[in-house]
Amino acid sequence: MPAEAFGHLVPQLSPYRNWLSERGFSFEFSYKGEAMANVGGGISKGMSYAHELTFNTRWDLGRLLGLDGWILHAVMMERAGRQISYDHVGEHRILLSEVYSLSGHAAAHLADIYVEKSFFNNRVNINIGRITLTHTYATSVLLCTFMVQCSAPPAIKADEGWSVYPKATWGGTLRIKPTRDLTLRTGVYKVGPLTENPSGWAWGSETSTGVMLPVELTWEPFIGKDNLPGHYKLGFGHDTSPYADRLGTIPAMFAHDVFHDANKPRDTFYIEADQMVYRKGGQHQMAGGYILAGYVHNTPSVSTFSDQVYVGASLLGIIPRRPFDRFGVMYSYYQMSPAITLGQRLRQLAGMSMGAFVNGPQTHSAILEAYYGIPIHPGLVVQPEFEYMMRPGETSIIPNATLIGLKVLGNL
C-alpha cells in the first residue's frame, strides 16, 4: 500500500518511469517513519521510532511475456525500530504505531507477490499468490490514514486467520462486479501462525492449521446532486482451524466448576462504512468531509477481542489554499473475550500468574486518535499525531496514556 504523498520527490525520474512503464514495469519506492512519544500515563515517559522502506512493483506480463491481461504485483520492504505500545504504554494487544508489527526488524521482507487478471471489462477479477488478506478485505484508504486502524481494525488482525500486512499467505480472491455500485469478493487462503516466517521468504517452513474463507459485499453509491461517494461493506470470514478456548490454565480448585470447550473454528463478522457528507470542490475532486464507522464481532471463546466498535471523521482540504491537507479523528472501543477475562480472574483468585504482561483481569480498552497531514512538497507529507489510550493493558491498573508523535511519508 504506497504512501499517500501526492506526487514524487524526484520528478526528474518521470521520463525513465514512463519509459519503463511503456515496456511493462512500473514501481513506487516509499518511506514511512513514525516517532511516537508517551508524555503522560502509561508505564513510563519516552519515545519510540520505527520506519519502513517499501519497494512496490507492477509487472505487465502481457508486454513482457505475451500473457495478455496478466499483471504480477510484488512488494518488498525494510523495517526497523521499536513499538511504543510495548516500551512505554504497557499495551500488548493493540499496536499504537503502524509500522512496527509482525515482521519486526527485517532487512528485506517479502510481502505480497501475486498475479492478477481481469475479465469481461473488469467485471470479474482474480488475484492468486501470496496475498495479505487485510489489503483486500475489511480495509479502506480512509482507515489506513489512521495509525491504529491500518491496515484493518485490530479486532480482525489480532489473531490467526486474517493475515495482516506485511504477513502474506497463499491463496486467492475472486472479485465480481455485477453493477457499477456493487462488488462481491470471496476467496480461499491458507492459515498459519501470524509470527511464523518473519522474513516472508521461507515458504517451505510455514505450517498450515486450516483455511480462511472470506466473503465481502461492498456497495459504493454516489448520493445526491453532488454525487457524494460512499462505501458500505458487509463481511464474514470462516477460519476452519481448530482453536482452543481462551480460558488458559484453570486452577485445580476450580477445575470441577469450569470446563474447557472443545476446539472450534473462528468466525468473524464485520460492517464498515464511510460516506462523504459534503463536497468542498476546488483542486481536489475528493476534497470534503467524510464520516466513517464500523463494528467487528468474533467468536468470543476463541478470539482475543470479541467485539470492536469505531466511529470517526476525515476532512480533506478544509483550509483555504490547502487542498491536500487532511484531518482525521477516530474513537475505537475494544471488548476482550469473556473467556480470557474469566480465566485470568480464576488464576488471580488462586494466587497464580495471570499471564505475561497481564496485571489484572483484562476486560476492555478504548483509543482516541487524531492527526493532521500536511503535504509540504510533492511526494512528502508530514503528519502530526495524537493518541489517548484509555485502560492500557485492558485494565484500570495502568494510568491512561497520552501520546504525541510525527509520521513522515515520502515517495521517490
UniProtKB/TrEMBL annotation:
Listed Pfam families: OprB
InterPro entries: Carb-sel_porin_OprB (IPR007049), OprB_Porin (IPR052932), OprB_sf (IPR038673)
Highest taxon, organism lineage: Bacteria
Family the entry assigns: Belongs to the OprB family.
Stated name of the protein: Carbohydrate porin
